Structures are given as structure tokens and as C-alpha cells.
Amino acid sequence: MSKVANWGHWVVAGIFAIKGLGMLYEIIPHYTHALRNHLPFSYQDYLLMVVWAVYLVCAWGVLRWRHWGQIAAITLSVLELAVVVGMVSLFGPLSLDRNIILWSALNCGVVIWLVLPQVRSGYWQRTQTA
Description:
Elements: H1 3-36, H2 43-63, H3 67-91, H4 98-114, H5 117-129
Helix pairs in contact: 1-2, 2-3, 3-4
């Protein structure tokens, strides 16, 4: 396996871990406020918990060279790109800011890296030996 495939999975896993931990960082104040004031959680609150957990599990799967981690990473990245495309089609390119463009570029990089022949064969070899 090439050096690109060896260090690339650390980078991709780091991207998903940062997304998951960043989402957790964003929602903790909301949950803390709700718990202190005895406010009920809505289904959106529970959905956010599921989403940040999915990002962290995906990061673990990519880091451990699990085939499901590769599929989950591609799926999450493509879904995020589809949301950005939908947002631009509805609201125009002025709705994009620097962070959306950065995360979209990272998502494109993740998808491109995960479909490289060397990386795909690495996931296939790990699946065969496991």
C-alpha cells in the first residue's frame, strides 16, 4: 500500500472526528440550557445526537480500515455536497460563505481519496484479512 493511502486515512478520519466533535461542541450549550430549565428535548435534538455519533463512528471505521467506514464516509460526504448544491440552487451563490466552501472542498477531497484505486484495494485487502 502506498504512503498516500497510509497517511490519508488518518486525515480523513480526522476530518470526520472534527466534524463530529464540532457538532457536539455546538449542541452542548443547547442541551445544557434545556436540562437546567427542565425543557423537553425535541426530535431534532435527538437527531443531532445521532448525527454527531454517526460522524464519530464513521471516523473510527475509516481509521480502522473498515469497509463500512469507507461507504459511510463517501455517503456522508456526498450528502453534504448535495445539501450545498441544493442550497445554492435555492438561494443562489451568495448563500455560500467561507466555511461552506472549505467543508465542501474537504468533502470533495474525501470522496476523491476514498475512490482512488490504491485506497479501494486497501479497504478490500483489509476486509479479506479480517
